[in-house]
Amino acid sequence: MDDLPAPPLGPEQAALLARRVSIMVASRDAQLRPHLMRALACRLSADRRVVTVLLPLRAAAQVLDDLRANRRVAMVCSEPTTNRTLQLKSDDAQVLGADAGDAAQAARHLEDFAAEIGELGLPAQVAQTVLAADDGIAAVRFTVREAFEQTPGLRAGKRLGSPG
Fold first, then answer.
1. For residues 21 and 107, what is the distance between their CA atoms, to the nearest angstrom?
2. What are the structural domain ranges in the chain?
3. What is the pairing mode between strands 137-143 and 22-28?
4. Which among 1, 4, 94, 104 is placed 20 to 30 Å from 132, CA to CA?
């Protein structure tokens, strides 16, 4: 285990993922057409290498099909009140069934996200609409292969772990 490189995400990025972030998951099909879906919540493993992101089953059907076919995923998390933004990429996404713990996490994130956008003057109904998962939840697990700072400013686009 000592031969493992440092995780691509540091404590600061891990803290961002645990906050009241907007989460978007992107995929592509065999014709390279992009597909995008707002996620319900995400969590990072203790070693900061593996992300599990929750998606609404029916609304994310195309994204889930793409991930099953090619396993390539990109995820962007952004905190609306600060614009602090992070992009993660991987090539090993697995679509899994969700459990009761996942549903509870999605419900907590919905409440937290409603509070976050409430600080910007948006009603909770906005969060309830964009984070609806009436037809179930899918869990997507992936190893973070690349991570990028995407907060607007001089470091936007900078690969995490690289100098500068």
1. 14
2. 11-149
3. unpaired
4. 94
